[in-house]
């Protein structure tokens, strides 16, 4: 089961406890990304730290408390601040550049709300290097004047996938493109979404080119019975596109859907058609089949969908594809389902099976 940390206090205090009690997971993250940056980009760790530092000015202007928390993580773990900054900018270091040298985590995200479902449920399979299961942390964060957060992350990274006490949740779909900026790394944008008390506040944190690289943030917000929304928000250095389906469903994998983003970015996902697009179409098929049969969509529906092995190994429940280049092999590392109506979160470490989910 995933290691759980209860964090409370000032940003520095929250970070220090994360660093101190999650030191082992942080070391796994540091070792993983040092090897990956060098193996795929021939970037040593010193260069990775330097590349992360170009974002520092933007982060300070965006939210200086994020700097304080990362400083706390570094102090608690006994590493340099630049090490933690590099982890939080790992997507910007890894996801842009030459097509044959890019690697990324993959994933399939799904959300349902009215009229498809009486409840608001959002979740995803997170696909990446299998060894990163040893880096996972469940963080429960209490902050002054902000919602409480429940978040699954890699050790040392202060923003990722989760939900908060204001009924806002976010999932992440990596996008591989040819451009980035020196603005705020997307993982810190995810934290800003989880710090938000409403959908419009969350959007304000990622709009207008504030994010340094492209990604999809699937955001759901539940404000009470009959008041909810789920949307794909593709973010980029050039702005965002907000995509909402009228039937109350949202699905995303790892290719750009927005024609607006494609005006400024090239989608470099070389497995768009054989992997990412099939996962998206399959997820939509599973949802539409359930709706056509009049089935009640609930957490058990999500469990079945996230266990799906159609198009194995490039399935929603993803397995390593030995025919893919080594740098593009990934597998499902965890699965999470968040029912915002019930304030209930289910988590599965590793590849999901129906009975492997536990309530957290």
UniProtKB/TrEMBL annotation:
<dbReference type="Pfam" id="PF03417">
    <property type="entry name" value="AAT"/>
</dbReference>
<feature type="domain" description="Peptidase C45 hydrolase">
    <location>
        <begin position="118"/>
        <end position="352"/>
    </location>
</feature>
<dbReference type="InterPro" id="IPR047801">
    <property type="entry name" value="Peptidase_C45"/>
</dbReference>
<dbReference type="InterPro" id="IPR047794">
    <property type="entry name" value="C45_proenzyme-like"/>
</dbReference>
<dbReference type="InterPro" id="IPR005079">
    <property type="entry name" value="Peptidase_C45_hydrolase"/>
</dbReference>
<feature type="region of interest" description="Disordered">
    <location>
        <begin position="1"/>
        <end position="21"/>
    </location>
</feature>
<protein>
    <recommendedName>
        <fullName>Peptidase C45 hydrolase domain-containing protein</fullName>
    </recommendedName>
</protein>
